[in-house]
C-alpha cells in the first residue's frame, strides 16, 4: 500500500481523534439526529408502546400528586411532522374547577390564554413577512422614536442604534423588561407602609394594567420604555424582555405597512387557518373557552394592548399543533431560514439551557438506548408563556421531527406545565429515538457490494447502545479498508486498536439520494492526555471532511433510496468511486 499523507497531516488528525478520548459516552456523535427522523413513527413498536403507556403515566402522576389533580386543568398534544399525525392528545378538566368550561367540554379547540407563547407567533410573523433581511438591522431603522432617543448616558439610556431586530427577538438587547406591567406603583396598595417612598404623580406610569389605568398608546409606551434604564449592554447576557417584543410589533408594522393585527392575520393566521387564535379575546358568545374562576381576576378578557406581541394572545391545542407542524415543515419559510432561526443565540448560566429568538432551548441528555446510561444531547426548542392562571408551552424536537404542546389553566398552571413537558419529553423523545433506530435498521442495515464481484463490500449494522450507522466491514478491492483507515488516521496496525466508523445523516438530499458523513474514532480510547478545562471534550465536528482523496472526503457516503419505501438500494462510499448494491 502507498501513502501520500505527510506525517504532519497524520499528526494533526491523530490529535483531533485524541481530543475525543474523555467522552463519558463511548462515541462522540455530531450534534443533531443520529438517524434520519422516522418517516412513519406511528408504525413503530416504540411509539405503539408510548401510546399505550403514556395515559397510565399521566393517571399515576395525577393520583400521586405529581400533578395537581384538583385545581389545574390541562390539554396536551404530541404530533409528528413526518406523517402529520397526532401521536397523542389528552385533556384533563380538574374537578374543583367546575364552571370553568362554559361550553361543557375541554378539547383541542378550547381557547386558552397563552401568555408569552405569543412571542413565538410574533417572531414567526416577522420572519414570514420580512425573511432574514432585517434581522441584523438596527431597530432604529424601523422605529423612529428610538432613533430619536437620547444616548448621552449609557447607564440611563439604551444605545438603540447598537440594538438589532435580532437582539430584541432573542432577549439580547439588554433593554428594560417591561414598562408599567408589574410596576408596583400602579397597584392600589399602601406601599409607603412597607418602606417605599411616596411618589408624586409624574413618577407613576399613567397607563398600563393597574386599577383605573387605560392601556398605553404607542407614544405613551415608547416614552415609558425610553424613561427606563437599560439592564445591561446590548449583546452582553440574555435578559428576558417583554418590551423588546412590544417593540418588535412596531417593527412588523413598519416593515409590512400594516397594523400588527393585519400582519399576523395575513402572515400566519390565514395561511395556516389558525381560526381559533387571536390577539383579542374571542366574542363572549364563543363558549369553547376555559376560565378557571373569576374572568376578571383571571384576566381572560383583558386586552393586552401594547404587550399583545409579547404576551397577549389566545390559542388552542389544535392551532398550536398546526403552528408547530408548519415550523417543522418550513411551510412558510425557506428551510435554510428555519434552520438558522432554530439555533441558540446565547448560552445561559444553566449548561442545559440556551436562548434563541425567542426559543427557550432545553438540552436533553437522551440515553442512547434503554440499555445504557450513555447519552447524547437532544435540543428541544420551546417557548413557554404565563399569564395569571394560564401557562403554555410549545416544544419542537427537530432531531425527530416531532413537537408537543402543553396548555394549563388553574392554581398550579406554571409548575404543572413544566411537569407535563418533562413527562412528555421523557416518554416521547426516547420513543421517537427508538422508532428512528428501528426504521434506520430496516432502511439501511445490510451488506452492499459491487456488481458482479464482492471484492468491494460495506456492511452496515446498528448497535443498541451506540449512535449512528456502524460500518462494521469495509472491503475495497479485496483490501480491508478499515485497517487502511486505522493506519492513515491513527498510524497503527495494532489489532487491539479498533476504528469506529459511524455514519450520521447530513440532512442533504437530492432526488432519491441522501448523504451521510462518517465520524472516525479510535476505540478503545487511550487514557486522557489533556487535563483541565479542555479535557472533557466531544469534538468530532472539527475533523469531519478532514481528509480527502482527489477532492472527495474519506468520510463521504451517499445512499440511493427506493423511491416508494425509502429503503436504501445502493451505497456510494464516494472516495472509492464505486457504487455498491444492497445485497441483504
Ligand atoms: C508511525 O508509526 C511508525 C511505527 O510505529 C513510527 O516510526 C512513525 O514515527 C509514526 N509516524 C508518526 C507521524 O507518528
Ligand atoms: C387526586 O390526588 C389524591 C391525593 O393523591 C388522590 O387521593 C386522588 O385519588 C386523586 N384523584 C385523581 C382523579 O387522580
Ligand atoms: C404533511 O403536511 C405538509 C404541510 O402541509 C405536507 O407538505 C406534507 O406532504 C404532509 N405529509 C404527509 C405525509 O401527509
Ligand atoms: C425627534 O425629535 C425631534 C426634536 O426633538 C422632534 O421634533 C421629532 O418629532 C422627533 N421624532 C420622533 C419620531 O419622535
Ligand atoms: C417628585 O418628587 C421628588 C422627591 O421624591 C422631587 O424631588 C421632584 O421634584 C418631584 N417631581 C415633580 C415633578 O414633582
Ligand atoms: C379552518 O379551521 C376551521 C376550524 O378549525 C375548520 O372548520 C375549517 O374547515 C378550516 N378551513 C380550512 C380551509 O381548512
Ligand atoms: C357570535 O355572534 C356573532 C354575531 O355577533 C356571530 O357572527 C357568531 O357566529 C357567533 N358565534 C358563535 C360561536 O355563536
Ligand atoms: C445506569 O446508572 C444507574 C445509576 O447509576 C445504575 O444503577 C445502572 O446500573 C446503570 N445502567 C447501566 C446499563 O449501566
Ligand atoms: C456477493 O455476495 C452476495 C451476498 O452477500 C451473494 O448473493 C452474491 O452471489 C455474491 N456475488 C458474487 C459474484 O460472489
Ligand atoms: C471493532 O469494531 C467492530 C465494528 O464496530 C466490532 O464489530 C468489533 O467487535 C470491534 N472489535 C474490537 C476488538 O473491539
Ligand atoms: C478480487 O480481488 C482479488 C484479490 O485482490 C483479485 O485477485 C481479483 O482480480 C479481484 N476481482 C475483481 C473482479 O476485481
Ligand atoms: C426514485 O426512484 C423511483 C423508483 O423507486 C423512480 O421511479 C424515480 O424516477 C426516482 N427518482 C429519481 C429522481 O431518481
From TrEMBL:
Gene3D superfamilies: DD-peptidase/beta-lactamase superfamily
Keyword Membrane: no
Keyword annotations of the record: Signal
Beta-lactamase-like ARB-00930-like C-terminal domain: residues covered: 436-583
Record-annotated Beta-lactamase-related domain positions: 105-413
Signal peptide, first to last residue: 1-22
Superkingdom of the organism of origin: Eukaryota
Protein name in the entry: Putative beta-lactamase
Provenance organism: Glonium stellatum
